[in-house]
Amino acid sequence: MNILARFISQLKKPTGFPGLIATKAMNRIHSRITSWGLGFLRIEEDFKILDVGCGGGKTISKLAKAARKGKVYGIDHSDVSVKSSTKLNSHLVDQNKVEILKASVSSIPYPDNSFDIITGIETYFFWPNLESDLKEVFRVLKPKGRLLLVSEIVRTPENEKTIDRFARLADTSDYMSYKTSDELDQLFIGAGYNNVMVHRNTDHGWMCVEGCKP
Ligand SMILES: C[S@@+](CC[C@H](N)C(=O)[O-])C[C@H]1O[C@@H](n2cnc3c(N)ncnc32)[C@H](O)[C@@H]1O
Question: For residue 115, what is the domain's CATH number?
Answer without folding.
Answer: 3.40.50.150
